[in-house]
Amino acid sequence: MLAAGAAAPAVGAHPGAADRSAASRHAGAVPRLTDDQGRVLTMRGWNVEDKANSGDRALTAITEKHFRDLRAKGFRFARLLIFWDDLEPRRGQYSTAYLRRIDRILDWARKHDIQVLIDAHQDVFGPAFGHRGIPAWATRTDGLPFTPHPDDWFAEYFEPAVQRAFTHLYEDPDLQRAQADMWQVLAARYAHHPAVLGYDLINEPMGEVREGEDLAEAARRIEARQLTPMYNRLARAIRSVDRSTWLFVEPTPIVGEGVPTGLGAVEDRRTVYSPHFYNTAMEAGDDYDPSAGWVEAYEAAVTEYPARYRVPIVVGEWGPLNNTLPNMGRFYRDAMSSLSRYSSGWAGYVWCYGGGYCALDASGTFAKNKERTATPYAPAVAGTVHSDTYDDTTGVYRLTYTAGRRGVTEISLPSATGAWRISATGGAKARRDGGDVLVRARPGSRVAVTVTPAGRG
After folding, report:
1. Which residues, other chains included, contact 47 with Cβ-Cβ below 8 Å and sequence gap of 6+?
2. Which ranges in 191-266 belong to alpha helices (H)?
3. How far apart are CA 247 and CA 9, in angstroms?
């Protein structure tokens, strides 16, 4: 997540009005994620994590309840945070206990019909700097200094030692091999697990800012010259043991400032672009300012790359820390509308029970405004989608599509026991199946499905 960084270099100018006006054109050129039946997929869910525990206790804070509750509220997607330092605490020695805990979590996900993105997570590189991610044995700083910033952890990314550690990870041949080996271990184990949708190759990658560069210039250089080769190396390593699982690649977090990525082509046919959706001012505690045009600038920035390289987008993290400020209801409405225009889904941050970023309070009730993420939507459409809209004011969801030759269209309803009216035209037959609606239609027919909360419309 992108927080305020007092020590960070300046970011270049946001896209102007002309660039923002191109967002809809770019969005229309972004392909959608599909399954092996050719159905158009929409992944909606949340990040699931255990940052508090490591070693013998790693991942123990994640329970079956997380997945049961996700599914009950209509979500079918989880981005599971794992840490390389727990997986491989010493070079070449992989923790079988850690892998078994991942196995257990994935089996819970399968039981509750949740698709999982396995995310190789890092925060401020790793434990050498008091965080989690890349192991200490893979951390090289050339003796450069590091000063903690306990009140602004994101500023630690701009400490010289952290920046140099990223350079070594990207450029040292033995560390390149170690990272590829780690991914081969994971991919060989989970290539055929039915709950696994994809692999997120590294969370929020950063790098070294050179003298005279602003942050936008540095980000584009890092993405073009270091991240692109890294992603292609890892793709080749994974494909040696797993030929079909989707690969998710991230730009640097600077995309949150409306800066288009400098990433080049990832030479793999099953690649997903997976930026994060955070705003520096909001992460620092400010309210959402609709007049600032940030959502529009972000949309213009993140759709440029996938429109050019013809890859789908799934936003890997999003959601502000303070959801109670006066304009946050407007933010969620604007954000959900924007995400629906161009993405194949998203994972909110974070599915936990408490305060802060948690989606739910201790009783399992949504935190203020986060209930706006739980809407009817279509996880799978068997055909060509023409429109897919949700009205935040009325609660009405509408889907129109031309039915394809294979598969069943699935619509997920929030809160499985909720009262909804379902109508379908075009000769389609719709039936309730717990918290879902299943729609079957004759190939070639134009179908319209409307979901209305009982008592409205």
Report:
1. 78, 79, 80, 81, 119, 316, 317, 347, 348, 349, 350, 351
2. 215-222, 228-239
3. 31
Low-confidence ranges of the chain (pLDDT < 50): 4-7, 13-19
Name the H helices within 62-192.
64-72, 84-87, 96-111, 160-171, 173-190
Give the tens place of pLDDT for each residue, 262-295.
999 999 999 999 999 999 999 999 999 999 999 9
The pLDDT assigned to 270 comes to 98
What is the structure's pLDDT at 415? 79
Q: Decide: helix, strand or coil at residue 348.
A: strand
120 membership: H or E segment, kind and range: strand 115-120
| Structure confidence at residue 28 (pLDDT) | 80
Contact 201, 118 (CB under 8 A): no
DSSP per-residue string spanning 370-435: GGGG---EEEEESEEEEEEEE-TTT--EEEEEEE-SS--EEEE-SSTT--EEEEEESS-EEEEETT
Q: How many CB atoms lie within 10 A of CB 393?
A: 6
For the stretch 29-48, pLDDT in tens is 999 999 999 999 999 999 99
Count of beta carbons in the 10 Å neighbourhood of residue 137: 16
DSSP string covering 250-316: ---GGGGGT----------SSEEE--EE--HHHHTTPPP-GGG-HHHHHHHHHHHHHHHHT--B-B-
Q: Tokens 């070594």, residue? A: 168
> How far apart (Å, rounded) are the C-alpha atoms in residues 143 and 233?
28
Largest CA distance in the chain: 70
pLDDT for res 417? 56
């820390």: which residue's tokens? Answer: 321
